[in-house]
Design a protein that fits this description.
The model has no long low-confidence stretch (mean pLDDT about 85). About 75% of the residues lie in helices and about 0% in strands. It is mainly alpha-helical and about 110 residues long.
């Protein structure tokens, strides 16, 4: 039996409320995901590279400022952050796609 999406019985107001709730849940998921990535990156910087609390905090504070400045300068949206940073790295001769391919070859 095939499942069908059924919103024919929903009013415009109900659809609006549903979409707002979906956006809220996605925003919460994004915040949680960003927190988890921050924790992982900070732990690697501490464990592998010896960053102490002061240096980790400096990195943590500067990270957001730099992203915001980059996005503002190029008049882009937050969802373009990763692409823009990858592009800027590539301009500097750092190819993350190449690194990822090499990592996958070594698995």
């Amino acid at each position: 039996m095939k499942a069908r999406a059924c919103n024919g019985g929903m009013t415009a107001e109900q659809r609006k409320i549903m979409k707002a709730e979906i956006r809220r849940e996605l925003a919460e998921h994004d915040r949680k995901h960003a927190y988890e990535i921050d924790a992982i990156v900070l732990w690697v910087l501490m464990d592998v590279f010896g960053f102490g609390e002061k240096r980790l905090k400096r990195y943590f504070d500067e990270f957001g400022k730099q992203l915001n400045a980059l996005i503002k300068y190029y008049e882009m949206n937050e969802e373009d952050e990763a692409w823009l940073c990858s592009y800027k790295l590539k301009q500097a001769g750092i190819d993350l796609d190449k690194w990822e391919a090499e990592k996958n070859e070594n698995r």
